[in-house]
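Hello,

Our lab assistant flagged a job as stuck in the queue for most of the afternoon. It eventually completed. Since we weren't sure the result was trustworthy after the delay, we are filing this so someone can double-check. Below is the sequence as submitted and the structure that was eventually returned. Let us know if re-running is recommended.
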Amino acid sequence: MSETELHEGLTAHLASCDHDALYTCERVLKETEWERTEVVKAPDGTQRIRKYLRHEGGFGSQYRSVASIGNPALPRICEVYELSDRTVVIMEYLQGPTLRELVEVQGPLSLAQAAAILKETCAGVAALHHVNPPVIHRDLNPSNIICSPEGAKPIDFGIARQWKAEASRDTRTWGTAGYAAPEQLGFGQSDVRTDIYALGMILYFLLAGCDPAPDIRDTLSGDHRIPPSARKTIARCISMEPANRYRSTHELVTALDQLIASTPAAAAKMRAKTPQKQASRKEPWGQRCHVFYQSHRAARILWHYWQANVAVIFILLLVAAFQMTTKPWMNAYPFDHTLEIVIDFSIAVLIFLPLWLVTLNPKGMFTTSKRFTSHPIRCTIIFLIAWLTSIYLLIGIPASLQSDDFKEIKLEQQQNR
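-- returned structure --
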């Protein structure tokens, strides 16, 4: 190395040290043999994250790639500079808990919440994958995703690497146990589907409230903590064979949208947003009757009178049905065949048919009350009671009229005449 190069290197090093001294460390968040992460105060008074990364094995080599992306779904990389033995990264300080901290406080999330958070995470991961060649995060786990006010964002790109067409496997077996795909352990080169694997494990963590067990593929189908609709999505993400996983974050987001749409709350919201169909020129018969009833005073009076008559007749015939086998009733009311026909007709037309129509309430013909229009189970119970009562009257009264006691009374009456 020439004297000029040595002088330039020393000058650059001193400049970097002076620049690094401009940031004041407030607290240390993490310290390992590979990196040290601090919350620092920048010269402008704002808080930043400062990372000291070791120069070895390409660790931290992709922070410059992340800085060049400039996607809002990723934390902003303010600057990257070199010290003698370390790379220094100054980046945005994201406010908010990690997914692990969130689940520790709130417990397992609902399917809609988990899918929504994973969709936000996919936006940042997709930004990495859209670089040419793609940048693979390789360390997506609940501790490396921050739930910031702007959405869930992946952090910690220390072991991220760019995909290489000529490589057959990764140079180092890095990753977090339980979230690292098989190819990260020496079985092949990591690619975009490696991050899909980790995202599937994160979805499991959000729903189950715990880290995935080694035998997750054997127990997933019977895990009651995971909604059945989500098991298929997770199983495809965490397939041992990369070819069986979702090919991109776009495919995974589509599957997550389907999961969100399958939740009751989303279905109700979708129904509320769906525009009602325009009414046809000719309204249904039941609706026309209801409009006629609402707009004509005489129709309302007749209907209320009809309702009163039905109630009175129903009560009388109900009493009659229970008293039909007693001789005092039969002595007081000498029935004949004509009266039997009238009673059967009255039960069918004046009781059964109105109760059936009111209970089922087709097209709001008789009432728009929510007691009937919004409670199908209640309507079904009322209908069954009315139907069983009417059947009893239809069968019970003719049977009573044909009973031996009634025949004896009728024979005595004919003899007295």
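-- support follow-up --
The delay was a queue issue, not a problem with the job. The result is valid. Residues 136 and 161 are 5 Å apart (CA to CA). The two ends are 143 Å apart (CA to CA).
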